[in-house]
């Protein structure tokens, strides 16, 4: 993680090297892999009430604990596995969020079994296009994040309120919300 503090970045990533690396290489980059889109949605759910840097610092612990966020494996977790996860200091040990992730894996798998690709589902909300914020005003939710949230909830997903969904949309590059002064804004607009 060789990052420079001299680069003009979004202010939210501060000077933390891990945060800067995430900002510079991942945040806002359009993600089209269905499993990764699901992983990021689950991690955003774990972030509820916490800061993203907390989740980012524990991300490898989450990946280890949740079998690389393999939805087929996660969907089969039983009570013994839930108890093991609740006791795992490498993750956020909120039982409700753990149970929601297992349910989210089951929903993901049902969608796949029905021939519905999770990436196609996610990107259909924008007709496959990246949306662009103005780089000056930063919403915490939008009409679109409210619509996506409502649809996800109707499918049974938990911890997918409009604010969480909007943060996910930014993270997965569905919205380019890099600040107008940020070096990544123009790079991702191409």
Automatic annotation (TrEMBL):
One Pfam family it belongs to: Adenine_glyco
Gene3D superfamilies attached to this UniProt entry: Hypothetical protein, domain 2
InterPro entries referenced in this protein's UniProt entry, alphabetically: Adenine_glyco, DNA-3mA_glycosylase, DNA_glycosylase
PANTHER family: DNA-3-METHYLADENINE GLYCOSYLASE 1, DNA-3-METHYLADENINE GLYCOSYLASE I
Annotated protein name in UniProt: DNA-3-methyladenine glycosylase I
Species, as recorded: Pseudorhodoferax aquiterrae
């Amino acid at each position: 993680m060789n990052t420079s503090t001299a680069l003009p970045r979004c202010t939210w990533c501060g000077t933390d090297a891990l945060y800067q690396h995430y900002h510079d290489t991942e945040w806002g980059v359009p993600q089209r892999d269905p499993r990764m889109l699901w992983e990021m949605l689950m991690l955003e759910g774990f972030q509820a009430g916490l800061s993203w840097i907390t989740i980012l610092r524990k991300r490898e612990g989450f990946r280890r604990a949740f079998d690389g966020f393999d939805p087929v494996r996660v969907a089969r977790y039983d009570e013994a596995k839930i108890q093991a996860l609740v006791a795992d200091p490498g993750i956020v040990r909120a039982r409700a969020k753990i149970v929601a992730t297992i349910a989210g894996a089951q929903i993901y798998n049902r969608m796949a079994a029905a021939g519905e690709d999770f990436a196609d589902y996610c990107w259909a909300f924008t007709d496959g296009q990246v949306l662009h914020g103005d780089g000056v005003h930063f919403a915490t939710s939008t009409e679109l994040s409210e619509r996506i949230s409502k649809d996800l909830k109707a499918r049974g997903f938990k911890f997918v309120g409009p604010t969480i969904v909007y943060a996910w949309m930014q993270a997965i590059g569905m919205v380019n919300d890099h600040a107008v002064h940020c070096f990544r804004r123009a790079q991702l607009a191409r």
